[in-house]
Amino acid sequence: MSGPPALVPVAHGSRDARSAAVIGELVGRVAWRRPDLDVRPAFLGLTAPDLPGVLDAVAADGHRAVVVVPLLLGEAYHARVDVPAAAAEVSRRHPRLRVIVSDVLGADPRLVDLARRRLAEVAGPVDEPGLGVVWAAVGSSRPAANEAVRRLAARLGAVAAFATAAPGVSESIASLRAAGTARVAVASWFLAPGLLPTRVAAAASPDVPVSEPLGADPVVAQVVLDRYRQALTRGAERAAG
Predict the structure, then answer these.
(1) pTM for this one?
(2) Is 95 among the domain residues?
(3) Alpha-carbon distance 200 to 196, whole Å?
(4) Is 1 inside a domain boundary?
(5) Which stretches within 156-206 are classed as H helix?
(6) What is the three-class DSSP state of 62?
């Protein structure tokens, strides 16, 4: 098949139907921006279609190359193990299909700004004196991934909290209040709604506003396309070298 390589944005997946709906909307925004691309969503688990199946279909349709863009905000197990393993598995089955895995979305400055705008929607100006911010992320069994969130939070004048690691949201809120912070808000460092963002919101006390995940914002769609372009550029440089 002629034309540019296909694009497969792959998300974590969730038992919460809202997550797949938001990812579908996001992928639709990506496809709208690049109508020349074959754009297909995939998930790592809990939600169909799965990544190997989507890549098999891409190969069956005659594509010679595909870029997988992990819709992940951190470099944890899924980014380091699951996605590359699936790509390698499909490459063995379809040796004529070149599978390229891009960098994760990560802490792109545009996404950080978007998260802060989401927070401002529920808490007012985020730089207002006296506002304590909890930067809430998924959490990982990989210490380096959690440390990256802590560094990001510290750079923003916030404290980190995690849905699946320590400290949790309630602990971070308590630490801010113990330090004399009168007003606290929680910034959701999540891409889409789901069980973990819901857990974060439930851990906050009723007087603590919690922002919405990044969602299917045009900014996110542009970052996805940038990761696609960067992966192709990097692949071309390696081939030339």
Answers:
(1) 0.95
(2) yes
(3) 6
(4) no
(5) 169-178, 195-203
(6) coil
